[in-house]
Design a protein that fits this description.
Helix 1 runs parallel beside helix 2 and helix 3 crosses helix 5. Helix content is 49%, strand content 17%. The chain is α/β, with parallel strands linked by helices. It contains five helices and five strands.
Length: 185
């Protein structure tokens, strides 16, 4: 499967594409950042993020998208920008009919490093090792986007199977009068 990871941000929106499957080697396709000028107005910055992400979608044709779930911080302005960039990524994917999954930062860190409290250097080092790269991806936003894609490849399939199983157990059962006569009691 090909997963596009998005580490949302208004100034630097990290993007990374990884091919792989659970239990198989992972391969980095590409990584980078979509940048916007801090002095531009928010509407224009969001438009630039949308245009940059659309280019990534066109170029790499992902099957799934993993976006970092926005979490509460003390700086409301930062949270708002991150949430807005996240929404743009979800919109771009949904417009194309590509499933989107949100992963928390601690979930991504735990999947990639084994610890939900890992720092950026540890995440970068593990991304480098898992993707068999010569050096950690730069900037850190690109490494974080690759970590999101890796997390989804490893955890997303299991989460999807669990959700499908739960949905199947909640599905209404046909009533006895709808069953063929030979199966009625």
């Amino acid at each position: 499967m090909r997963v596009l990871g998005v580490d949302p941000g208004l100034t630097r929106c990290g993007v990374g594409v990884v091919d792989g499957a659970p239990g198989r080697p992972l391969h980095m396709v590409a990584c980078g950042v979509v940048r916007t000028p801090a002095d531009a107005d928010v509407a224009h910055r969001l438009l630039q993020i949308e245009q940059g992400l659309e280019l990534w979608f066109d170029t790499h044709q992902p099957e799934l998208v993993a976006v970092e779930r926005v979490f509460a911080q003390h700086n409301v302005r930062t949270v708002m920008g991150t949430a807005q960039a996240s929404a743009v990524a979800m919109l771009c994917a949904t417009r194309r009919g590509i499933p989107v999954t949100l992963h928390t930062p601690s979930e991504v860190k735990a999947a990639v490093t084994g610890s939900g409290r890992a720092d950026k250097d540890q995440v970068g080092a593990m991304v480098t090792r898992l993707l068999r790269l010569d050096a950690p991806p730069k900037p850190a936003d690109a490494a974080d986007a690759l970590a999101l894609a890796i997390c989804h490849i490893w955890r997303g399939a299991a989460v999807d199977r669990i959700a499908a199983a739960v949905a199947a157990t909640r599905a209404p059962r046909p009533s006895s009068h709808a069953r063929p006569k030979e199966y009625r009691r």
